Amino acid sequence: MVRLDIFSDPVCPWCYIGKTNLFKALEGKLSPFEITWRPFQLNPDMPREGVERKGYLEAKFGKERAAEAYKAVNAHAEKAGLTLQHDRIARIPNTLDAHRLIHWATLEGRATPVVSALFTAYWQEGRDIGQAEVLADIAEVAEMDREMILRLLGSDADVAEIRDLDLQARGMGVSAVPTFVVAERHVVSGAQPPELWAQVIDEIEGMGAQ
Question: Residue 34 pairs with which residues in a beta bridge?
Answer without folding.
Answer: 3
